[in-house]
Amino acid sequence: MSTTVHDACGGCSGCDGVPKPGAGQYIALSELPDVPPDKAESEARGDFSPPYRYPFLVGVYLAINAIPDAAVIVDGPDCLFFKAEIVHGKHDLNSTLLRNDGRHRVVASHVYTDNVAQSKGELVRQLLERTMKSSAYGAILVSALPMVSIIGTHYDQIMRDIGPQENVDLIEVPGRSLAADWLDGYSDTLVALAKNLRLAPAEMEADTVAVIGYFMDRTEQDHLGNVRELRRLVEAMGLKLATVWLGNESCADLGKVSEAATLLALPLGQGAAQHLAERTGAAVVEVDVPFGLGRTSRFLRALGDATGRREQAEALIESELRRVIPRIEWLVPHTFLGAQIGFSGSPDLWPGFLQLATDLGMEVVHLSAPCLRPRWLADLSGFEPLPPLFLDVSFMEIQRELRRMKHNRIDLLIASSGMRCHGPKAVAKMEFGFPSNNHHVIHDEPYLGFDGFLRFVQRMANAIEKHRESLRHQGPT
C-alpha cells in the first residue's frame, strides 16, 4: 500500500501540500502487514509520512456546499477542482458544487506559477464581475491557495472597489492552508459570513433561537434529518428555530438569524456566534453537539436555562427517554455489553460518543480525527479510562494504530471511507463521517438528538451482528 501527498490534486504548483485522505487514499486493515516491535520503533524514528488531515479549502467547500445559493472564487490553478470532487458525486450525491453545464459553484482564477506575480487579483475581479451578473447567488466568497496568498493580494480592496451590490454579498475568506485544516476552513467561512452577510431587517423575538456551527458536511438525508431533529426539539419546548448555520438554507434564510434572541453556539460556530451577537445583540450560549442521550439532554437543559424553560426541557427529556430506552433494552446485554469500539470522526462529536458508548456498556479503545488539535476541544478527563487521542498525527502513526486494532480484533470501528477495512481478519466497520463514499442516505437517518440516537445505535448493532455472523461462517482463523 502506498500513500502520496498529491493523490487528490495532481501534484501541481498550487497544491497546499496536504494529503487528501478519502480521495484515492485508503488505509485498509487487511492490507497492513504485521510489523515486529523493533521495526515499528524504527518506523517511528523515521516518520516522514504526510499528515493525516484534510486541507483548509475542503472545509470552505463543505460550507459552500451547505448554502445552495453561495459560490466561491478561489485564486489559484484548476487543481482546486479536484478538492471539490472529494465532496461532489462521491461523499455527497446531492452536491451542486459542480454542474454539467459548467456553471460551477467553485470557480478557479486559473493563476499559475508563470503569471501569479503579475496577477494582482485582476482575474478575481473579472470573475467577480462576471459571476455577480447571475441571479442565482446570494453570496460570492473569495479565497486563495497558498501559492497566491504569499503575494499579498488585497481581495477586500477589490471588493470595495467593485462596491456594494443590491442582491449579492461579496465576502472574503482569507486562505490559511499552510497553518489550518478543514475544520478551520469551515469555521472561518462561518465567521466571514457572520461578519458580512446581510441580515434580515427583522425585530428580535424572545422565543426565537438559532443554531450556529452545525457541521453539515453533505446535503443527504442524514444531515437534513439532523436539522429536522434540531427543529423538532426546539419547537417541542415552545420555541421557534429561526435558522441553522449551516443547514442547506439560502443566504436569505441564514439572514433570519437577526430574529433570534438566543444563539446556540456549537463548537465550530463559537467564533461566528460572537460576531453575530455583536451585530444583533443576541445572547450567546455555548452548547454541546446533541449527539447521544446524555449530550442531547445537556443541550436541551442549556436551551431551557437560556430561555426560561427549564421545566419544559426536563419534561421533554423525560418523555423522550421513556420512548427511547425501552427500544434498546435487549440490545445492550446481547450486542454491546463489553464490546470494544473505535471511533474516528470530528472531535466535536467525541464527548457525545464517549458518553453514548459508556451508556451502552462498551469500551472505547480508539479515538482519532483527521485534523489538527482544535482550540475548542472539550475536556474529556471525566471519561476514564480514556484511550490515546490521535490528533495532528501522520499517516504512519495511524497505520500503527490500525495494526494494533487489527491485532486486538476490536468489535467495531466507526470511521470514514478514509479508514476502510476489509478481508477475513478485519474488524467490523461502520462508515460514518467525512468522507462517506460508500454509505449514502436517501431517507431520514439523523444521528443527532433522540431520534438520531436510535438510528445511530441501530447502525452500530447491525454492523456488529453482521460481522459476528460472517466470523461464524468463516470458522477459526
Question: What does this protein structure show overall?
Answer:
By secondary structure, this protein is α/β, with parallel strands linked by helices. It folds into three domains: 56-196, Nitrogenase molybdenum iron protein domain (Rossmann fold); 205-324, Nitrogenase molybdenum iron protein domain (Rossmann fold); 329-474, Rossmann fold (3-Layer(aba) Sandwich), CATH 3.40.50.1980. Helix content is 40%, strand content 13%. The two termini are 23 Å apart.
Order of helices and strands: HHEHEHHEHHEHEHEHEHEHHHEHEEHEEH
For the largest beta sheet, what order do the strands appear in spatially?
11-10-9-12-13
Helical segment count: 17
The description of the largest β-sheet is: 5 strands, parallel
Q: What is CATH's topology name of the largest domain? A: Rossmann fold
Helical proportion, percent range = 25-40%
**What integer value in Å does the Rg equal?**
23 Å
Number of strand segments: 13
Number of structural units classed as domains:
3
Task: Decide which structural class fits the backbone.
Answer: alpha/beta
Query: Would you identify the CATH H-level superfamily of the largest domain?
Result: Nitrogenase molybdenum iron protein domain
Categorize the overall geometry: globular
Low-confidence stretches: 1-26
Q: Which CATH architecture of the largest domain?
A: 3-Layer(aba) Sandwich
Beta content comes to 5-15%
Arithmetic mean pLDDT: 88
